[in-house]
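Per your request, structure below.
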């Protein structure tokens, strides 16, 4: 019907679109002029930086000198063309904050990943694409209509990826990832200290991939899986196998009972643990002033599928209670069980990533009660069981918290680090180290920041002089730092970086 409308009607619709666009433009200019935003994830420490910089940093720190010739980087959500609508933290343009570490000095550089989406908005000099948080109520319908018309009339191409979530290091190449799109290859120039975007990967039968791929180094295979996030009508887990040259070797579609996000999976040897959790999609919720994506705690169904990669078969295990998992930590397999460690969220409100004070979340102080748990899948009896650790459930640290971003120890296979998120502010307030041997009874080691200092993102484990530390960006109320955290001795070593680095998602560190 829209395609066959007469030119007069199309011209009228175009005027409507331009009208809405101009209103949005004035709003955006006003917000940028004032430098203040009402949205939670655009304020305070989360306020995006609007300038790319390169900064030389001298230091005489022994620990950092032991990381000579290495590269550390954080990736996260940093909208360039900021608009103070219902901004969702997952929606911002991907920005890399990179640090080239040399003996006696470092070179810091931040760069936006040059996605198709960002390039289109650069051309228009304003926000064009939809935020997830906008998709509710009358305004959501207007925004959907406006964007649909711009796309239909050929003013903007269809694209959604922001490359803001994680890094992939595969066959000596680095990629920026976002599960609504394909990976973007990066060029990290260690000689000239420069970060740039090379290209977006394109395949005829793959439309989006995970932000947490699995590398099978022994076989030289990359499991760059995905899920049906481009129409949400049918739940699918899409298992893609690539080789070292990024050739697509095989693709298998696995049906799901839910049609929502699979952000991460578990993996051990040739078995992949696929979480099929009731994060659902209902377009009719927009008319009720609600986001179309929601977690169905009461009526949903949670199950795990064990994919035997060799045989391409899946066996499903059902759970009594519903939960959600963003990140898996590790998997063990015995003769009769899969034992899985993951950060389990008892409840998920998608609106929490727009505003932590979301009025629909009746347990704001808990914000999902995200904790590391031990999950058992009984192979022969087809039963499931979840084991909790009382010390993890209540760290007794004086504030409500969540635990996420699990990171594997390099020196002890059984140990896992996690970030402590303040449930009220969303900031990283410290770290936990837990030994999973006899998980139910082990008391974790806890490190808490002080003096208004907070972590920025997922830390990386580094080994210096046979001791293990966490490497991460940190910040206080006035300064950003690159920091080394010694949990065992409760010590923090930092070098100031003379520019602001907002919180991000995941990180990477490696020698070059």
């Amino acid at each position: 019907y829209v395609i066959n409308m007469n030119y007069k009607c199309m011209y009228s619709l175009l005027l409507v679109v331009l009208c809405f666009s101009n209103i949005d433009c004035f709003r955006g200019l006003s917000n940028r002029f004032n430098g203040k935003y009402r949205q939670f994830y655009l304020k305070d420490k989360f306020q995006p930086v609007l300038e790319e910089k390169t900064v030389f940093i001298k230091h005489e720190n022994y620990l950092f000198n032991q990381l000579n010739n290495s590269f550390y980087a954080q990736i996260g959500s940093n909208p360039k063309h900021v608009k103070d609508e219902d901004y969702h933290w997952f929606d911002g343009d991907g920005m890399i904050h990179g640090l080239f570490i040399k003996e006696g000095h470092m070179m810091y550089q931040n760069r936006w990943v040059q996605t198709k989406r960002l390039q289109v908005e650069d051309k228009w000099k304003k926000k064009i694409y939809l935020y997830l948080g906008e998709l509710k109520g009358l305004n959501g319908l207007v925004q959907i209509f406006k964007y649909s018309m711009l796309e239909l009339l050929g003013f903007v191409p269809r694209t959604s990826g922001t490359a803001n979530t994680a890094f992939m290091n595969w066959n000596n190449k680095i990629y920026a990832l976002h599960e609504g799109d394909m990976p973007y290859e990066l060029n990290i120039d260690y000689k000239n200290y420069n970060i740039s975007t090379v290209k977006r990967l394109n395949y005829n039968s793959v439309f989006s991939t995970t932000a947490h791929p699995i590398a099978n180094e022994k076989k030289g295979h990359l499991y760059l899986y995905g899920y049906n996030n481009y129409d949400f009508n049918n739940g699918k887990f899409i298992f893609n196998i690539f080789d070292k040259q990024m050739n697509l070797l095989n693709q298998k579609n696995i049906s799901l009972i839910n049609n929502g996000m699979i952000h991460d999976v578990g993996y051990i040897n040739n078995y992949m643990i696929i979480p099929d959790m009731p994060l659902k999609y209902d377009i009719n919720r927009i008319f009720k002033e609600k986001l179309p994506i929601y977690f169905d705690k009461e009526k949903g169904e949670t199950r795990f599928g064990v994919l035997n990669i060799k045989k391409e078969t899946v066996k499903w295990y059902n759970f009594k209670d519903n939960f959600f998992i963003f990140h898996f930590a590790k998997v063990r397999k015995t003769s009769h069980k899969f034992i899985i460690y993951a950060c389990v969220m008892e409840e998920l409100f998608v609106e929490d990533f727009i505003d932590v004070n979301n009025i629909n979340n009746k347990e704001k102080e808990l914000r999902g009660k995200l904790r590391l748990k031990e999950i058992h899948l009984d192979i022969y009896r087809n039963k499931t069981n979840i084991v909790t650790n009382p010390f993890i459930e209540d760290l007794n640290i004086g504030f409500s918290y969540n635990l996420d971003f699990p990171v594997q120890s390099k020196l002890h296979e059984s140990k896992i680090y996690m970030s402590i998120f303040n449930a009220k502010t969303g900031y990283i307030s410290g770290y936990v180290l837990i030994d999973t041997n006899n998980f139910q009874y082990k008391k974790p080691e806890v490190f808490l920041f002080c003096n208004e200092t907070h972590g920025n993102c997922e830390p990386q484990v580094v080994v210096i002089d046979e001791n293990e530390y966490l490497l991460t960006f940190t910040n206080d109320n006035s300064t950003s730092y690159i920091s080394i955290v010694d949990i065992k001795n409760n010590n923090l070593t930092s070098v100031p970086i003379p520019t602001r680095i907002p919180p991000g998602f995941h990180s990477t560190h490696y020698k070059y």
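Confidence is low (pLDDT under 50) at residues 1-34.

Regards,
D.
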